[in-house]
Amino acid sequence: MEFKLPSPEQFKLGIRAVYSVAIADGPIGDGERAVLAAAARVIGRPIGVDIDLDRLTPITPAALAAAIDDPQIRYQLIGAMVVMTFADADIDGPEVELVEAFARALDVKDGALTALRHLAEERLLLARLDTLRRFWGVKKIQQIAASEGLSYYWKAAMGAMRRQDDPTIAARYRALEASPPGSLGRAYYDYMISNGFPFPGERGSAPEVIVFH
Fold this sequence. Notes:
Blueprint: H1 8-22, H2 30-44, H3 61-67, H4 71-85, H5 93-106, H6 111-120, H7 124-133, H8 137-148, H9 151-160, H10 167-174, H11 184-195
Helix pairs in contact: 1-2, 1-4, 1-5, 3-5, 4-5, 5-6, 6-7, 8-9
């Protein structure tokens, strides 16, 4: 689904909804303000809308639903609200409950809402598994399992739960340190090291199939 630019009026209403999520748990934070500023700059200005962030007011789910009936714009707005919940240090109950209320009012159903609820309740394992269920890599995992056998599903599941330990796989990726400077392998190695990420095969790492991405 390609992104659909909202009309000026839809954008004005939509950014108020995202603002409503931002203040659901208290005063707006720096990260939340940055998200709103980015939306105003990247989406608002090209369609001729200038937004004063300090003059934004909240909007109720019912009012938003009554004003916007385009299914794609509704879907995109819920996505923007989900992004907003990640803008501060915590994904907490009031924000998630409001996003869920907007989703019900707009009749938007998406697996991201389930994962968001799990994260708010600190059910991190369920969130990872729910994300994996909708993950583009599932098809890739199925392809690999078809050639390597059903045991690969177990490996993928352990990776999703960050419980994977496979020294052989880890050693293969660690060996990329010896790749020539400027090569893809060396760039990948440097990226993982500089960010403190575990390599595939190491405990806490993501499934190896993500390397393809």
